[in-house]
Amino acid sequence: MRVVYVDNNATTKVAPEVLEVMMPYFSDYYGNPSSMHFFGGQVQRKVNEAREKVADLLGADASEIVFTSCGTESDNAAILGTVDSYPEKRHFVTSRVEHPAVGNVATYLTRKGYKVNELSVDREGQLDLDELKEALTDQTAVVSIMYANNETGVIFPVEKIGEIVKSKGIPFHTDAVQTAGKIPLNMKKSTVDMLSISGHKLHAPKGIGVLYIRKGTKFSPFLIGGHQEKGRRGGTENVPYIVALGKACELARKNMNDENMRVKALRDYLEQRILEKIPNTLVNGDRSNRLPNTLNVSFEYVEGESILLLLSDLGICASSGSACTSGSLEPSHVLRAMGVPFTAAHGSIRFSLSIYNTKEEMDYIIENLPPIIQRLRDISPFWKDYLKSQGKK
Ligand code: PLP
Predict the structure, then answer these.
(1) Ligand 1 center to residue 166 CA distance, Å?
(2) What is the mean pLDDT of residues 186-206?
(3) What ranges do the domains of the chain cover?
(4) Are 17 and 210 a contacting pair, CB within 8 Å?
(5) Span from the CA of 71 to the centroid of ligand 1 (angstroms)
(6) For the chain, is the Cβ count within 10 Å smaller at the N or the C terminus?
(7) Which CATH architecture has domain 4-10+255-389?
(8) What is the pLDDT of residues 274-321, one digit of tens each?
(9) The domain at 16-252 falls in which architecture?
């Protein structure tokens, strides 16, 4: 069956070049980078090379790169590692649209007796920076606000947020799991203290992440163990995956301009044709501040899950903005926080592209989506009510 994979914010294909460079580290170069002998030493050098490549993508110094097991670990380590460093401060600030890797840490801290502020977003998915200013106190241990949203692609004004947070002397973490490789980052000119990335969102395997920690940032290790990662994260390094991530970052840097422009053009083409061909459709999120690969679109009066299943039958892999919670289909917390109307939030679909997508694939989606929406609307009581209200039936 033909597969059109447009769910790259969920995970990406491992690039063939990445797969090729990582394989020998399972079979031939399996030494422990901490070992004294040459067999370990040669592996240590490769880990360091990979660290340099990650640092290059982030515009950071290699000494500021800590390898972790995933984006979730990086987020947890940044927030919990910082609150641990400031035990007297019992306040945490984040947003209402974070990934659960941050959102559920907020819930955990609330349970532990912390005061937590979750900043709201407007209809475009953007933050109110005055609300942020008001939330910060001398009790705030750390602020964690994502760089770009995984569901809508909305990019937050991270440098402005950082300026506000840093003016109060508070550590600032950002979850850039969806950002790295898609838009340029430069930690040398940034207000960010800590930044999370995840390998499997940029064509490296699942199970490898990075936490960037600016030199001088107070940080207690989240995984307590050996001296690895300069004592900032215990555990023998996942060498094949580290080498893979280094290569993926090198490729991402190379593709940053041309390939990402091509992806953006494909996304815009898909968006425009969907809006032209399907009535009662709206795009969710600030279209002027959005990742180049992401399109979150709502089809009023139909359910996202039904659309996904019918798309899936045709080999089209996208994702929906709803989550099945306790048997009822609840719209995603992101769309709810943005105040997307109930009738639209339920029928939201996220298309997230990668450099491997083609125009033919977009045409395949554009050809098949309108009849699917029509078919579902034909059996939707909400659509019938809507048509009646418009005097159309
Ligand atoms: N943060 C964001 C914004 C994400 O989109 C994801 C994954 O979807 C994560 C964190 C978690 O990353 P990982 O799957 O590597 O734990």
Answers:
(1) 25
(2) 98
(3) 4-10+255-389, 16-252
(4) no
(5) 5
(6) N
(7) Alpha-Beta Complex (3.90)
(8) 999 999 999 999 999 999 999 999 999 999 999 999 999 999 999 986
(9) 3-Layer(aba) Sandwich (3.40)
